[in-house]
Specification:
Blueprint: H1 3-27, H2 30-60, H3 71-93, H4 99-115, H5 133-164, H6 179-212, H7 220-241, H8 246-264
Length: 279
């Protein structure tokens, strides 16, 4: 068994976990919830094992590098980070329904990495520009931030659903955390993600200077990273200085995550970016 096969199996495990969390939410039976948690733990263990195996395989091929150097590897790391952060939240808040809105994101990211014909899972030698520890720091910090924003996106959707049910008539929303808890958890995730995104942009600038002799080049990925940063900075400023809350923060959180997705995926179709394939 190689790492790609193990990670493909992990994709289906994440899919099963997402299904079980949704079943737990819809049918309100404890068994699917417990199974969902255990399935998620098995999945993230397989994810981590796959990352480690891929790292070892790269050394066996004589190209030895951390498995963070291309789109496939970054998606695998992104999925793993989402699940780890989510499990911490589940253990802290003892609420599994949040998993119905977060584990599907990890599943979709893994599925895209494993099944898209446009993404290669081959281990290849690093290009000169990628041979830097700053790149590793940049990728890790950015994707921890992205994972936090992904969970904030799921929580924002939950908040918007919950606040519409003012009379508490919906049985599907009855076991959601109350809006105050969701709003505070959303804020914590955004603060956490913003810290790591800021660090990721800084380490990316240092890496860019090491690789190309300039800290900032205004290519599409850099520009959209900065736009994403400003969206979340505006959100945090509005909440702390203007007293914004509720729906406005939830909508801004959703917009911010759309910007994250465009930064990560959309700009790959634009010319002039510093993507993983750049030299």
């Amino acid at each position: 068994m190689n790492s790609s096969f193990l990670l493909s199996i992990t994709t289906f495990i994440y899919g099963l976990a997402a299904f079980l969390y949704i079943a737990f939410w819809v049918f309100k039976k404890p068994l699917p919830g417990r199974l969902a948690t255990w399935t998620t733990m098995i999945g993230v263990s397989g994810n981590l094992a796959g990352v480690i195996m891929r790292w070892v395989e790269s050394y066996r091929l004589g190209v030895g590098h951390a498995p963070l150097s291309n789109l496939y590897e970054s998606l695998v790391f992104f999925s793993m980070t989402i699940i780890i952060v989510y499990l911490v939240i589940e253990m802290k808040y003892k609420n599994r329904i949040i998993g119905a809105f977060t584990t599907p994101i990890a599943f979709l990211a893994m599925a895209y990495a494993s099944m898209s014909p446009n993404i290669s899972d081959r281990i290849q030698p690093l290009l000169p520009a990628l041979k830097s520890n700053w790149l590793i720091a940049h990728v890790i910090t950015c994707f921890v931030g992205y994972a936090a924003f992904a969970i904030a996106f799921g929580i924002s959707c939950m908040y918007l659903f919950k606040q519409r049910d003012t009379g508490g008539k919906s049985s599907l929303l009855a076991h959601f955390p109350n809006t105050r808890v969701l709003e505070e958890l959303n804020h914590q995730m955004i603060m956490f993600g913003f810290l790591f995104l800021t660090t990721g942009i800084i380490t990316g600038a240092v890496w860019a200077n090491s690789a190309w002799g300039r800290y900032w080049g205004w290519d599409p990925k850099e520009t959209w990273s900065l736009i994403t940063w400003f969206i979340y900075a505006t959100l945090l400023h509005a909440r702390m200085m203007k007293g914004w809350g509720g729906k406005r923060i939830a909508y801004l959180s959703i917009i911010g995550f759309v910007a994250v997705l465009f930064t990560y995926f959309g700009v790959n179709y634009l010319p002039g970016l510093h993507s993983y394939g750049a030299s």
